[in-house]
Structure formats: structure tokens, C-alpha cells
Amino acid sequence: MLYVRFPLSLRNVEDLLHERGVDVSHETVRYWWHRFGPMFAAEIRKRRIEGMKSSR
Predict the structure, then answer these.
(1) Distance between CA atoms of residues 49 and 28, nearest Å
(2) Which of 1, 7, 8, 35 meets the CB 3.0–4.6 Å disulfide criterion with 12?
(3) According to DSSP H, which parts of the chain are helical?
(4) CB atoms < 10 A from the CB of 28, how many?
(5) What does the alpha-carbon distance between residue 15 and residue 25 come to, in Å, rounded to a whole number?
(6) What pTM value is reported for the model?
(7) What confidence tens digit (pLDDT) does each residue in 17-34 have?
């Protein structure tokens, strides 16, 4: 989710995870991004649209 919400590189995400005790390579993060990124992006878009509708 951090990669979707903030302009981080794959290596930045790798470093953030490493600081939290998760040892993965940036290639693993890239794989996760291609697999799960579209789902995260769709959920963010859906919440933004719902927020706009409720503020009317």
C-alpha cells in the first residue's frame, strides 16, 4: 500500500520492509506490485468516488 500511496521506488519499499524485519528483494516487491497493485489502485479509486458522492 505504501508504494501506491507514496512515490517510493521498489528499493525504498525493500528498505522499509527490511527495517521492519521482512527480508525481501526489490524483485519480490516488483512481483507483488504487478500482482496486487491493480487491486489496491481499484480500491483507492472506489473509496475516492464514494467520498465524493457522500460529500454532495
Answers:
(1) 31
(2) 8
(3) 2-5, 10-19, 26-54
(4) 15
(5) 9
(6) 0.58
(7) 999 999 998 899 889 889
